[in-house]
UniProtKB/TrEMBL annotation:
KW Amino-acid biosynthesis (keyword) present: yes
Name this polypeptide is given: chorismate mutase
EC number: 5.4.99.5
GO molecular-function terms, A-Z: chorismate mutase activity
Gene name per UniProt: aroH
Reactions it catalyzes: chorismate = prephenate
Species annotation: Planococcus liqunii
UniProt key word Amino-acid biosynthesis: yes
Keywords in alphabetical order: Amino-acid biosynthesis, Aromatic amino acid biosynthesis, Isomerase
Amino acid sequence: MIRGVRGAITVGADQPEEILRETSRLVLEMAKENGIEPDDVASVIISTTTDIASAFPAKAVRTLEDWTYVPVMCTHEMDVPGSLPLCIRVMMHVNTNVAQKEIQHIYLNDAVKLRPDLVRNTEAKVL
């Protein structure tokens, strides 16, 4: 069965190095917390707020060890007034037998504000 695993992270600035570093961090944390191997991933969709435009976060995923052939696509989020700035969101489609309610959705940095109901240990996730 395919399940969606969500994650989000914020960056301090629209800087390519930070975007790639934080995207890698988020994806690896999502994989670790859910026991995901790259061969289990059907696809990954990454969206950014419109204030992120200096790098493709998908590049961070494609350069991770064993993730080269995972299909990844980037897009921009809707530009809604008052939304969380400098945010990268990931939707990972994973082949798993884990029940929906057992999926660990990962929110890091200021992105914990998006879904505090899904953050199990907020203090450990905020850096």
